[in-house]
Design a protein that fits this description.
Elements (H helix, E strand, L loop, with lengths): L2 E4 L10 H15 L4 E4 L9 H7 L3 E8 L5 E9 L2 E5 L1 H4 L15 H12 L4 E5 L10 H6 L3 E3 L18 E3 L11 E5 L12 H5 L7 H20 L12 H11 L3 E3 L1 H9 L1 H4 L5 E9 L8 H11 L4 E8 L3 H6 L4 E4 L7 H6 L1 H16 L1
Parallel strand pairs: 1-2, 1-11, 5-6, 6-9, 9-10, 11-12, 12-13
Antiparallel strand pairs: 3-4, 4-5, 7-8
Helix pairs in contact: 1-14
GO molecular function, one term: glycerate kinase activity
Keywords: Kinase, Transferase
GO biological process, one term: organic acid phosphorylation
């Protein structure tokens, strides 16, 4: 029997990864009777990471936690055995904000989800850091886990990055003692340090609504955080990845976390590489197949894994801007955009599911 592994990322803003996989699978079955299709939606550590884990057999555990500006958010994490998968975007992400809050957004909810997972018995926490709304150095996360951030008068600072300018002391005595035993794994493709021209504020602050003046303020605040923490004997500001998610990587490095590329972590969580032996074709994709795809995003990692095993890889996307030579060098056999069968871009955005089915049916007839 012909076997096809279908492992797409989301079409951002239009179709979740599991819906993309389902549409491709339906088209393949219509194009080739009797084909065996293994659906395995993926993510790269950002939004969709929990959904990818759930699709691979993890249980979804609902939870309520603090959102980016303190309002309660109905969210959750994925759990299998002693491993919990937490997605920053699902509780402290940009998409949760009606109005950007670069100076006050917090990672408090991330820490609350970590604590909930620990309460449920997890001893391995995997954290996906994409899609952050905050630049608070992960201090909200630390606060939720028992740390105290104090000004010169001994008063607790308010949430958000801007308040860190007044930081005088970080009291870690109350940190949850279970953190000394738990394994923390960060799924992130960012290797930026906390500070400087390549740091959290300078590079990512503008994406979260920070003006030039805000970026200077946040840089100063994060520098104050690093100096205060360094005074207590912990110096992780230059750890690659410390600048991830507005400095959330910094806080996790303080807690002893290890860092790995997001797609590598997701491949492990979903067991995708175990599904590849015996496959005749792998189909992956995302909304836009472009130069960013080649910089550690999901489809590129999937293509490399399949190409190593001699499996042809076809990518389906909303649009494809990569040349055939570039695609081949990255492990792709071919790529098709929805615009190949529907020139109306607006229709591609509003009806991606049916169009993906048609495109997958065409792939089945050409490659199977």
């Amino acid at each position: 029997m012909t076997r096809v592994v279908v492992a797409p990322d989301k079409f951002k803003g239009t179709l979740a990864a599991d819906a993309v996989a389902a549409a491709i699978a339906a088209g393949l079955r219509r194009g080739r009777a009797g084909v065996e299709v293994l659906e395995c939606p993926i993510a790269d550590g950002g939004d969709g990471t929990v959904a990818a884990a759930v699709a691979a057999g993890f249980a979804f555990v609902p939870a309520r936690a603090s959102g980016p500006v303190g309002e309660p958010v109905d969210t959750g994490y994925a759990r299998r055995g002693d491993t919990a998968v937490i997605e920053l975007a699902a509780v402290s992400g940009l998409a949760l904000l009606d109005e950007l809050a670069p100076l006050t957004a917090t990672t408090l909810g991330v820490g609350e989800l970590m604590r909930a997972a620990l309460d449920a018995g997890a001893s391995r926490l995997v954290l996906g850091l994409g899609g952050s709304s905050s630049t608070d150095g992960g201090t909200g996360l630390l606060r939720a886990l028992g740390a105290r951030l104090l000004d010169a008068d001994g008063a607790e600072l308010p949430p958000g990055g801007a308040a860190l300018r007044r930081l005088a002391r970080v009291d870690l005595d109350g940190l949850d003692p279970r953190l000394r035993e738990v394994e923390l794994l960060v799924a992130s493709d960012v290797d930026n340090p906390l500070l400087g021209p390549h740091g959290a504020a300078a590079v990512y602050g503008p994406q979260k609504g920070a003006s030039a003046e805000d970026v200077e303020l946040l840089e100063s605040a994060l520098r104050q955080l690093a100096e205060v923490v360094r005074g207590s004997g912990v110096d992780v500001a230059n750890v690659p990845g410390a600048g991830a998610a507005g400095g959330t990587g910094y806080a996790l490095a303080m807690l002893g976390a290890s860092f790995r590329p997001g797609i590598d972590v997701v491949l492990e969580l979903t067991g995708l590489t175990e599904k590849l032996p015996g496959a005749d074709l792998l189909i992956t994709g995302e909304g836009s197949l472009d130069e960013q795809t080649l910089r550690g995003k999901g489809p590129a990692g999937i293509a490399a894994a399949a190409a190593e095993r001699g499996i042809p890889v076809v990518a389906l996307a909303g649009r494809n801007t990569l040349s055939p030579d570039t695609l081949r060098s990255a492990g792709f056999t071919a790529a098709y955009g929805l615009t190949a069968i529907e020139p109306d871009v607006q229709r591609c955005l509003t009806e991606p599911g049916p169009l993906l089915e048609r495109l997958a049916e065409r792939v089945a007839r050409e490659y199977l």
